[in-house]
């Protein structure tokens, strides 16, 4: 749990792998505040094959993300709190930008990976949980350039998140979660 008061020009990123045959809706990333349980959320709608960025309880749906099970994907969502524009990057391919909502995300935030918060730090639904592997989750308080996102996707030397930094993550495990080192190469 972290206490942050942010002027959020936010963006976040996750590389989940779905090893199970997870065909239902599920959450990748959930950040809640006291006023907005979906302050910053990335959600997969399996019925319509749409990846949904949610900002401050507003959402938009993007089709065209080839989010197949059994392989790694790179999912990034950017949002500019001044213009209110959101964009989704799925395996390095940018969506169109859409207006969603503007103004900062403020107050104390709780970020949960793989479970959706319907209230601040709670309100979970097991039917929406993520099953699979997740790595390299970062969050920044500014909108990344296309070039920075490409570096992230290619696992090159990108600037780690200054809100959430996977290399220095302060986290708590709840339930049956295994943490392990990522296998980068085979010998
Ligand atoms: C992220 O964490 C790594 C490892 O602790 C550290 O070297 C780096 O400076 C951190 N980056 C940011 C932006 O906080």
Automatic annotation (TrEMBL):
Subcellular location field: Secreted
Sample GO molecular function, one term: metal ion binding
Keywords assigned: Calcium, Disulfide bond, Metal-binding, Secreted, Signal
Cofactor(s) listed in the protein's UniProt record: Ca(2+)
Domain Pentraxin (PTX): 1-186
Entry note: cofactor: Binds 2 calcium ions per subunit.
GO cellular component: extracellular region
Main localization of the protein described in the UniProt heading: secreted
UniProt cross-references to InterPro entries, sorted A to Z: ConA-like_dom_sf, Pentraxin_domain, PTX_dom
SUPFAM superfamilies: Concanavalin A-like lectins/glucanases (SSF49899)
Regions that span the bilayer: none
Quaternary structure, from the entry: Homopentamer. Pentaxin (or pentraxin) have a discoid arrangement of 5 non-covalently bound subunits.
Family indicated by similarity: Belongs to the pentraxin family.
Protein name as catalogued: Pentraxin family member
